[in-house]
Amino acid sequence: MPLSKQFQATISSPFTNPSRFEKANGTGSWFDLFRTKGNRHRTWVVVTCSIFAQATGTTLVGYYLAVVLSGVGITNPRTQSIINGCLTMWNMAFGKFDLEAFPLDLRNADTLEAFWGAYKIDHFGRRPMMLTSLCGMLFCGFIPWTICSAIYAEKGTQAAGSASIAFIFIFSGFYATTW
């Protein structure tokens, strides 16, 4: 059944003419972010979370995984693709998951149990999970990963290269649970 033109215009108005929509519906300014103590605190939380999310080091995994894997002796593109696919599934199992963005119907409880981070965030709380995630990423993931990569680069020890891959998975698992 087609939608009426008036309904379509009403729904699409914020997207087609945002400045008119904001003038009609918004009375606030950017200074409202800093006027009250509560707003300053919320602004600080949003800004620091954004900075920490960008500074976590996941860019190394997301954009430069092939370079990182080549640096620890995995040069076969097929093996790199397999590791990348396994890492994606690993993150999906531990991570938060946007059910609305996923094309399949995954809204039943049995499926939600597979997505650990999304299932447990209300049980443990956001702050403890975020702090655990940050500490785990640093101390159980990134630092050992860096040490093993350096050992492989200096001495060529294959075990250090393999351990680097394991620490990439540990790092990504901690990242996926919260961020």
Offer a quick outline of the entry:
The protein has eleven helices and no strands. The protein is mainly α.
Radius of gyration: 22 Å
Low-confidence regions: 97-114
Helix-strand string: HHHHHHHHHHH
Helix amount: over 70%
Tally of individual helices: 11
End-to-end Cα distance, whole Å, is: 40 Å
Arithmetic mean pLDDT: 80
Count of distinct strands: 0
Largest sheet: none
Shape: elongated
Strand content: under 5%
The structural class is mainly alpha
Outline the structure in words.
The chain has a domain of 123 residues. The chain is mostly helical and 179 residues long. It contains eleven helices and no strands. Helix 1 crosses helix 2.
Question: Keywords, please?
Answer:
179 residues, mainly alpha, 11 helices, elongated
Question: How do the strands and helices of this protein lay out in sequence?
Answer:
Layout: H1 5-16, H2 18-25, H3 32-35, H4 37-54, H5 58-62, H6 65-71, H7 77-94, H8 109-112, H9 116-124, H10 126-155, H11 158-178
Helix pairs in contact: 1-2, 6-7, 7-11, 10-11
